[in-house]
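Standup notes
- DV: blocked on the single-chain target, sequence here:
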Amino acid sequence: MGSNVFQHISLESPFQRYLSTNYIPTDAEIKQIRGNILPDCEVELARLNSLIQDLTAQRDRVQDYLASHKALISQARRLPQDILGEIFLACLPTGGNAVMSAREAPLLLGHICGAWRSLSFSQRRLWTSLHIAVENFQRPEGKSGVVEWLVRSDPLPVTISVHSRVSNQYPAALDILIPFASRLTALRLSNILSKEFLALASVNAPLLTDIHIDFGDDISPDEGARILASNIFLGTNTKHIAIISANPRSLIPNTDFAWGHITDLCIECNLGYSVRNLGLDSMHSLMQGCSRLEFLRIQVHPAVNVAQSIGAPLLLSSLRGLTIIKRGPIFNTLLEYLNNDLRMPQLTKLHLIDLYPIVGEAITFDRLADHSPHISDFCFNVLSFEHTAPNIRNLRAFTSLEKLSVVVWAPRYAKQYDVFDRDVIELFSTLTSPDVDNTLPVPSLRELSVEMGDMMEGEWMSFLQYQVDHSTKFQRLHLHLWREPDTDPVDENRKGKLTQYLAAGLDVSINCTIYPDEEEAFEDD
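- DV (later): unblocked, structure below
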């Protein structure tokens, strides 16, 4: 075949010198081209196209033949089913629950071949997580697909997340999910109405350990007081409860209550820093009613504070982690409350996020350190040398402190404070100045994170050098520097100095961010 491919036509043209030029042929030349050259070329082109089609078909047959035999001897065919099953499990998403999509595992695995389909359907563990879009329940095949999915995992525990773009569409989903409630270990519901959740709240879910509810409506006080006391929490071993609501205050009853079943609780407002967040009075009532709390994350608002006298301090003997979030001037009031009204002897983690001090007498951490001597992970804001410098010095009182995160300055607070270099100097000086008996100031410190304005590297370089010279337990420094445009906070000279600390085994990272425009910095005020 190859010897006959190019023998029928010559590509030497009598018009070669005119090709690819602006030459206009004469009538006689046009007649010659149309009569002799074009027909011959078109015939030859048709012949070659026919040959190409034949060769392509032959090539495809050979390729299919080869691929079939390679597949016959492939290693995947020889894998034991238990190994292949483990590979299937490794294909599941790690960032969330599996979705009902033929483009992702586990459904994708059933579209490869019949053997894989049979194996995937028989692997119960492949079907123990599911993310559901409520809109899928508008179609009959969507409902049946969810049921088939959950039946495949029976009787294993399951984790389920449900999301709806539009409120008021949950009833159909709940009707299908409630029969499987006894197998739930984790449940996440997004944009659900409070009345819809209360329809689910009466079920018995004995395996449930993690539940996250993001309400899509304004919860009334009557409905709110029933939520955390509902059977889905009371009758389970629930460890972590997270509730996001437009009106968190409605979740706390106005009368005495005892929720001994709650050990790990997060309450936040989905309207941001709203006056509907809990005040210190509601927070106190909540902690008083949840005597077995181990971890609490809560947003507060300073509008309503705890009464001046509440009697004896509240003992939270099980509390190990406390995170309080509020961008607002509540720092002094909160410290008074932590110092005077709470006793948390087992506390190891204390994060006070987006809280800044107000003008007034400085409050210190000293009594807090006495009452909670085991704090090892501490996060707070400085932002005002006049009122919080004593708190920096009080860090020495936290003898178990291993991880410290401090906000010295950030653009979001610039309306209240300037860049306080004194705070930076005070911070690093406190952490490197030995006590009178020549002991390390914070002997257990392993990790330090500081957010501040850009500055000369002297203070934190000296801090790192101190760790190297004294062979301390310190391991990691992270700096978040806010800087002016067109400046390089990590210039070549500074990089060279950092190299020696990296070589000494320290982990040093610097994140640099340019100052935002003023409107951008305060757009959420």
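- Follow-up: The first strand starts at residue 129 and ends at 133.
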